[in-house]
Amino acid sequence: MRVTEAATGSTVPRRQLGRYLRELRTNARFTVQAAATALEWSEAKMWRIETGQTSLRSHDVETMCRVYGAPDDMKTALMGLAKETKGKGWWHAYGDVIPDGFDLFIGLEEAANSLEEYSPELIPGLFQTADYHRALFKKNRPDLQDEEVERRVQLRVQRQALVTRVTAPPTLRATLSEAAIRRIVGGPAVMAAQLDRLAELNERLNVCVRVVPYSAGAHRGLDTGPFIILRFLTTGDGRNHEPPTVYVQGFTGALYLDKPREIDRYAEAFTVIWDDALSQEDSSALFRQIAKEMNGP
């Protein structure tokens, strides 16, 4: 059994470990409640472990494997994987400004091989300029002190490093509604600079940003709302190191979907939205045209 993982940060190893332990539990015919009772843990702790929300000590993994009757080679491999879950990604330095649960997304984003995003209202976070992001916080979170706003802006800047990193940058495909690029955030100058940034990013080999124009009418994105599909590297025989995941952010929390049927539904929706969008070249031309209009004569 091979459980090594080269991805940055601890999120992917945690999710891998949780998935293996969940499989062991179900194969041993333990319910979550029965396993929690046998281990003298709460069901909430079991859920956090099996969904990759927390790291584990090797001793705890050894105990779970014993209760589930796992073979020795599996126990040894999972105890080794538990050690990898202790590693911290760069984003942990910003723990004071990361919303609850969002550190899981940042870890997945950092490890992803490709991302596909539909954003109907705002410029996607990986593409936002510092001024655009700053303007969003000042408008929507007036309670934040300037220092905290700047910490959040710096977190966004750090996240964006993966777009331009030299070693294996992920493939990024994004579709934006025309409303997202015409909505003025931070004033005309800030928005014009943001649109110029989108046009510049569209020149990168690993980035493609396309606009769904108003003329597309009632397209599929009106049903789905915003979402991100994250995909990860595969092994030599085509298996996923980590299953694809759909991230759906809501006002009071986020959903992480990884069932094959859910992935297929969102992938099909993204393809339809993508096909309704302008070409990459036409989208870049529209970015520059609107930026010019905002800059004035």
TrEMBL record:
Residue intervals of the HTH cro/C1-type domain: 21-74
Signal sequence range: none
Protein name: Helix-turn-helix domain-containing protein
Stored InterPro entries: Cro/C1-type_HTH, DUF5753, Lambda_DNA-bd_dom_sf
Species for this entry: Actinomadura violacea
Pfam families for this protein: DUF5753 (PF19054), HTH_31 (PF13560)
CDD domains registered for this protein in UniProt: HTH_XRE (cd00093)
